[in-house]
Amino acid sequence: MPAPSFGITQAPGTANYFVDNTHSAATDTDNVSGTATRPRRTVPTSLPAGAVVEIRGGPYLLSSQVTWTGGGSAAAPVFIRGIGSPVMTTTGTTGEIVVAGQYFVIDGITFDKLIVQMASGLHHFALRRSTVRNYSPSSNSSAVNVQGTDIVVYANEVHNNGDPTGAVEIDIHGVKLGVGDERVWVVDNHIHHNGGDAIQVGSATSAEPWARFVYIGRNTMHHDRENAVDIKQSRDVIITENDMYGYSPRASSSGEAVIVHNNPDRVWVINNRAHDSARGIVSTGAIGFYVIGNLVTNIHEAGFSTTSLSDGHGIMARATTQIVAVNNTLWSVDGGFSQDGNAPADCVNNIIGAVSAGGHHLGWGSTTSGSASLIRNNLLQGTVNILWAGSRYTSLSSFETSTGKGQGSVNASPQFVSSTDWRLLAGSPAIDAGYATSIGTPHPVFALFEATYPGAGAITRDISGRLRSVLGAQWELGAYDQNSSSTTVPAPLTPSNLRIIR
Fold first, then answer.
1. InterPro entries this protein is in (predicted)?
2. Is the pLDDT of residue 484 over 90?
3. Among 118, 302, 402, 494, which lies 20 to 30 A Cα-Cα from 257?
């Protein structure tokens, strides 16, 4: 994903505003900015360019709604920085911190029982290294509600907002994006035990302009009431390098780690780990659903049906067009990959195995879809089980003879390093077994990504972050390239820019 222009690397200068409500000399009277020895008791609500607010002490009891406006510039951002994670909370059951302005960073604050609500028109804002917890209103909401452009939500913990085990649906999401949001990064966060999704983008019916250019990366998400990532009406969403687990069926969710629906445009799910959930990566309505390089394991749904094209599946699509599933590893799943619609789907270079008894490696609901699909160069472990428009095939040869599909596929053990390490050992039949349009040229989805997002970089690295290499004629199958299969840990890089503090 591309790096944001603002929000990650910017660092505050020397503090010029001081807040500490526990200091014996603290006062707001005739004390606009405070000093270290005579700090303010409250955070100023409007801050000029270059302001660096240092907050100590706490907890701070706020009224139901407080607005912080940062009037920063690219050359002189505004920072509100917590020292020791000071707690902002409310005198009521819930409250609201409204964030307005531009070129503004909030770093190191704990928000308790408060929603962080971004105001319309906000741009170049970052919420960093903060905690948002215990926000539980009585109706649908979110703990961090994004509005604006060039927004960064980085390295926060967002947890226990709403009821993650509630029988009645009251959606309290961890992070929510919606209409007009553009260029938003939600990265390196720990989001868990919320009463809705960890991250939701768009709504079932969104006004234009839909949220666009959304990057969801390197987050750990688990045990929320519904899903880790829920993509609704939006465009150009990239979900990459996340770890997602602990999702179970509820009255309002089937327990998918990733769910895509309501026909968003171009959703990319790349190099993620999705595991220990009822379903893996699912689209029930999208225009462009690209699932590449993911490791999906331990996906099991109570009472799964062996004829179902959705129960307990690692990757599943229906009512979706432009479906691509390339170089994924699906292991210990009730079902592998399925397409339950009429659109074609590319299912190429995947490893699928340890499928539940009676479950299928591959499933197509209609011959209309299947006959137009690219299905080849997959490794299927165990007894072959392919569901094809109501018929079953139990060997790759019979499948290829009857349908003309499955060329280059193998029925074998992939020879992983171990039962919990899905890298490939030397000699694995998955090595140098991938499909390519020509020698050394991988599936065209990789070029499509670079052409669509020219500043985002290539996606030709495997799930371990190593560049996929062609050791023989073609790439490997599955999420790991053989180049990263060595069990020897490489030596660390020589450190630089070190100094000794005495």
1. PbH1, Pectin_lyas_fold, Pectin_lyase_fold/virulence
2. no
3. 118
